[in-house]
Amino acid sequence: MAARADSSPLIVPHDVTLELYRKMLTVALVEERLKVFCKQGKCTFQASTRGHEKVQIGMTMLLRARHDWFFTYYRSKAIAIGLGMPLKDIFLGMLSRDGDPSSNGRNMPEQFSARELNLVAQTAVTGSQYLPAVGMARALKREGIDQLVHVSSGEGATSEGEFFEALNWASREKLPVIFTVQNNGYAISTPQSVQTGSSIHQIARGFGLRSFHFDGTWFEGMYETLPSVIEEVRRGAGPILIEAEVIRIDPHSSSDDQRKYRPAIELEQLRERDPIWQTEQYLLRHGLFSRDEMDAAREEIRAEVDEAALAADATPQPSGNDLMAHIVSAPDPEESEERAPRPISDAPVAMIDAINHGLREALAEDPRVVMFGEDIADPKGGVFGVTRGLASAFPDRVENSALAEASIIGIASGMAMNGLKPVVEIQFADYIWPAMMQLRNEVATLRWRSQGAWSNPMVVRVAVGGYIKGGPWHSACIEATFSHIPGWKIAFPSSADDAKGLLKTAIRGQDPVLFLEHKGLYRKVQAKALEPDAAYSIPFGKGRIRREGKDLTVVTWGSTVYLALEVARQLELEGRSIEVIDLRTLAPFDEEMVYQSVRKTNRVVVAHEDSLTGGFGGEIVARIAENVLDSLDAPVVRVAAKDTFVPSAPNLELMALPSIEDLRGAVERVLRY
Fold first, then answer.
1. What pLDDT band is residue 1 in, cutting at 50, 70 and 90?
2. Strands (E), 6-148
């Protein structure tokens, strides 16, 4: 789009143009100063916004700063500046210095965060911001607030599946989201023609979104069209997508050399579309600034930028004294001790019923609790019936979701950031993997990467385990994978009373919790127990001695608890005394209970249903070896599933998974040592 001729009607008021210019100039001078820091080795990563600054600053001016919400990506410095983040804070973040309010050196440079600006801490992951942004919008709509969410990326991120899932969910529920795609034509070195054969604004229309296509280096089109559209979004008209054609003046990042893949003539032609150069020509044509006044403004802003840069550069590196802080919330001393349950049932209840009742109580206790997942609503109430009746009792808070695991997790995360308490279901553990980007990079890191400024307490219920003839796609145990990800708490109950108590703790807590429910235990007679009262909760990291013993300890959890109890019963008839520890939670797990038992029995077998290699049992064995090796009179032995997938044929399934015979053989071998 060419600049309008002088005789054209005035579209953008001059005071708006001048504000836009000064803010863009500030961005450009910040980028210029950061290039010096990069050359000095003081800044490890810079993704310049030169060429993107007009659309970014422009959107902060069209929206309501400190009212609306912003989910950004790694090339969004102009949004942070446009929202009013102090320049020193920008430099502290870019230099990873002590006192950096975005993350105090935890997150990468370019990932800005400020609660007071509703600028959400982001990751450097491509496109993963879209689903949490939609989740935030979903929470805002539930609350009836006139805030909206602005989420942005480059065009490369729109090749990610999560981008399409976000468009789908936002459009289906008419959520207050503005998707802004800043299309500079390159995903690092890959041109857009390799990304899509269509155009992004046309793709959005296929999802039912209104979309707009602008020259993002020129403000008139946006200023003329968007204010009324933004107000429509604010009033409930549903999401929109803006595709802004911008230019990338600088390389992709400070480690890139775009001269290797962009022709020299193409780089030379960028000057004519430079948003700042175009604005300066506009100001000169309209007599708003003389060249001398522009130079004076540039030097005035440069002095402000240099002062902020020098102040940040004089700040020391982070001390690291709080390196392990904010991975999970600080423990509450009042919740560290388990209280005895008060039974409310006359007869034992099945685990499936205890979980259902716990969910129902949580919905009744806390209006912030919301639930969604595949098929969880009535009349089905989940594929196993765990949530049956909840949607009928709480129709506006228990809902079915799309068949999209990444969406379920990402949407829940965004809702949790806004203060809701999502309890979502992943139908089978085997199908959780599409959500891994959200589970690992977004959800788990939020509190840590923002130095505790942001959090997303949520519960992800997952049906796990075999012994149900589920075959290779309905039998997985996944605790080992997630125990390796800091930020997640993991519960794996084996009985009805523990399931309810741990579920209540998970929902009332302040952290993301992976709540693993073994399908084979839902209705298992041995897993039944008297149902505890609504106030009962079990602290995470507190195991349970299911059977006292003195000759050997079996450390276990989940379904193998009952293998261990049966082996202990059998060996008791032969005069052997076996202690069975049910860990109940794996992140954290009750190390001290394990160590005390080892000091007493001097022999240990660790049993679990997951595969042997890389199973969580290996971590327990390592901790035992490190902390109580002198107490051992025999090697520590593990019993687990074979290193294969779970077969569908019933006889092969039993061969692959641990059995009573396997565990008894291991126990006897250790006792003989």
1. very low
2. 69-71
The Cα-based distances of 519 to 339, 350, 477 in angstroms read: 27, 12, 11
How far is residue 131's CA from residue 459's CA, in Å, rounded to a whole number? 17
Residue 670 in contact with residue 604, Cβ under 8 Å? yes
Record the tokens describing residue 125, joined without a space.
């992951």
DSSP state of 455: -
List, for residues 86-95, the tens digit of each pLDDT value. Answer: 999 999 999 9
Angle at 345 between CA 344 and CA 347, to 5 degrees: 155
pLDDT for 161: 95
474 part of the active site = yes
3-state secondary structure of 469: coil
The pTM of the full predicted model, rounded to 2 decimals, is 0.95
Q: In sequence order, what are the beta bridge partners of 370?
A: 422
- For residue 473, what is the DSSP state? G
Rounded Cα distance between 526 and 567, Å, is 14
Average pLDDT of the segment spanning 600-617? 98
360-414 pLDDT tens trace: 999 999 999 999 999 999 999 999 999 999 999 999 999 999 999 999 999 999 9
CB neighbours (10 Å) of residue 229? 16
**CB within 8 A of 313, min separation 6: which ones?**
37, 42, 91, 95, 97
- The stretch 602-619 carries a mean pLDDT of 98
Cα–Cα distance, 359 to 381 (Å, whole number):
12
- Kindly list the distances between the CA atom of residue 558 and the CA atoms of 374, 387, 494, 515, in Å, as whole numbers in the listed order: 24, 21, 5, 12
Rounded CA gap, 418 and 415, in Å?
5
Tell the burial category of 330 from Cβ atoms under 10 Å away from its Cβ (0-12, 13-18, 19+). Answer: exposed
Catalytic residue selected from 150, 201, 474, 608 = 474
Q: How far apart are CA 100 and CA 94, in angstroms?
A: 9
Q: Tokens in use for 352?
A: 């499936």
Q: Tell me whether the omega of the peptide bond preceding residue 86 falls within 30 degrees of 0, making it cis.
A: no
Cβ pair 365, 534 in contact under 8 A: yes
Whether the Cβ atoms of residue 361 and residue 549 lie closer than 8 Å to each other: no
224 strand-pairing partners: none
443 with 316: CB under 8 angstroms?
Answer: no
Q: Any idea what the Cα angle at residue 394 is, between residues 393 and 397, rounded to 5°?
A: 160
Amino acid at 444: A
